[in-house]
């Protein structure tokens, strides 16, 4: 499986790092990484990671300005792309088809070739423009997956929240995950012979 991972300058770059780390553990996955200049800033601002440490997690790394990269062409077969985290700027660029850098072009190619495009947009609150762009992209087949907190699995750490989001992404590509499945209390009570 070949996957493109695009990291943009939204808060939450650690989600992308964790995703890359998990993908590296899966032998059958080849990762192609693009990091925008904005993401380089947030990596510096929000994490203690060295950019080269992150680059080493991927099989292929591209400069965001490298418009003649293999992933800029639909003839280069990939199974999908994940933009994580996805800024409102990159979201707007993909929604409008304005492919002025390699990340935007690769996402555009995924859409035109009807390949899976997963976007993890991060902003709070969302403006009408952000929501309109997300709707536009969902209508075009993209999967919109904001990093929403989860509670059913009673996470107690940020790492657990990040792990859950990464699991959700892996599951979209039928890759192995360690997600805690929701167990209906109703079913458990029925199994125990307790009536609600
Ligand atoms: C520390 C920091 C955090 C940011 N967080 C967000 C964010 O959560 N969402 C967002 O849309 N933009 C955020 N931005 C702004 C983007 O980085 C900026 O719009 C940038 O031009 C996006 O470019 P890119 O999409 O090519 O990475 C942040 C910027 C900085 C410096």
Summed up:
The chain is an alpha/beta fold.
The level-1 CATH class: Alpha Beta
CATH superfamily: Flavin prenyltransferase-like
What is the correct CATH architecture? 3-Layer(aba) Sandwich
The overall strand count is 6
List the uncertain runs.
none
Strands ordered across the widest β-sheet: 3-2-1-4-5-6
Radius of gyration: 18 Å
Write the layout of secondary structure elements.
Elements: E1 2-7, H1 13-24, E2 30-35, H2 37-46, H3 51-55, E3 60-62, E4 80-86, H4 88-96, H5 102-112, E5 116-121, H6 128-139, E6 143-144, H7 158-172, H8 185-192
Helix pairs in contact: 1-7, 4-6
The chain binds flavin mononucleotide.
Flavin mononucleotide (FMN) is lined by residues 8-11, 36, 38-39, 41-42, 45, 87-90, 122-123.
Overall description:
- This protein is α/β, with parallel strands linked by helices and 196 residues long.
- The protein has one domain: Flavin prenyltransferase-like (Rossmann fold).
- Helices cover 42% and strands 15% of the residues.
- The protein contains eight helices and six strands.
- It has helices spanning 13-24, 37-46, 51-55, 88-96, 102-112, 128-139, 158-172, 185-192, and strands at residues 2-7, 30-35, 60-62, 80-86, 116-121, 143-144.
- A six-stranded parallel beta sheet has the order 3-2-1-4-5-6, sandwiched between helices.
- Strand 5 (116-121), helix 6 and strand 6 form a beta-alpha-beta unit.
- The longest helix is centred in the C-terminal third of the chain and has 15 residues, at 158-172.
- The chain is globular and about 65 Å long.
- The chain starts with a strand and ends with a helix.
- The mean pLDDT is 94.
- Flavin mononucleotide (FMN) binds next to helix 2 and helix 4.
- Flavin mononucleotide binds at residues 8-11, 36, 38-39, 41-42, 45, 87-90, 122-123.
